[in-house]
Amino acid sequence: MAILYKHFASFRTVFYVFFTCFCLLPPLKAQAEDAIFTVSDVKVDITAESAAVAREQAFAKAQTDAFLKLAERLMPEGEMASFTPPDPQTISTMIKDFEVTQEQLSSVRYIGTYTFNFNDRNVRKFFSGSGVQFSDVSSRPVLALPFYQRDTGTVLWSQDNDWMKAWNRAGDLGGLVPIVVPIGDLMDVSDINEDQALGYDDAKLRSMLGRYNAGEAAVLYAVPDQSLALAAEHEKAAGSLVVEIYRTDRNGPEVVRTVTVDPLEGETKYELYSRATKLVHQALQQNWKEKTVISPAESSGRLSVLVHINGLEQWAATQSALERVHVINEIALQSLSPSAAKVDLSFQGSEDRLRLALAQADITLSEPRYVPSGSGGFGGFSDSGSLVYELYLNRVGGM
Question: What is the pLDDT of residue 398?
Answer without folding.
Answer: 39
